[in-house]
Design brief:
The chain is mainly β and 70 residues long. 0% of the residues lie in helices and 67% in strands. The strands form two sheets. It has a four-stranded antiparallel β-sheet with strand order 3-2-5-6, with no helix packed on it. Strands 1-4 form a two-stranded antiparallel sheet.
Length: 70
Amino acid sequence: NVNFTSNNDGKAEIRMFSASGTLVKKIESAITKGSNNVQLQDLSSQLPGMYVVNIVVNGQSIGSQKIIKN
């Protein structure tokens, strides 16, 4: 799961990158102002390791998170 806070309603794009910088997954989701939780589904095809998730809301990057897949 990716948890984040948004200052506005709108559209979020969650981009998941491998450690080498390759885009491996992109999810679009409608979000609301305040706390949001977007679930990363169908990660079975991804190898175990570290990934970086970039969060873009209404076209503006609001942050990133590191996740570990076991």
